[in-house]
Amino acid sequence: MRHAVAAAGLPPVRRVVLTHHHWDHTWGAAAWEAPLVAHRLCARFMAAEALEPWSHDHLRRRIADNPLLGPSYRARGRAVDDFTDLTFVTPSTTFEDRLRVTEGGATVELVHVGGGHTPDSTVVRVPAAGVLFLGDCYYPPPHHLRRPGDGPDLDLVASLVSDDIEWYVESHDVPRRRAEVEEALRAAR
Ligand SMILES: [Zn+2]
Question: What spacing in Å lies between the alpha carbon of 187 and ligand 1's midpoint?
Answer without folding.
Answer: 25
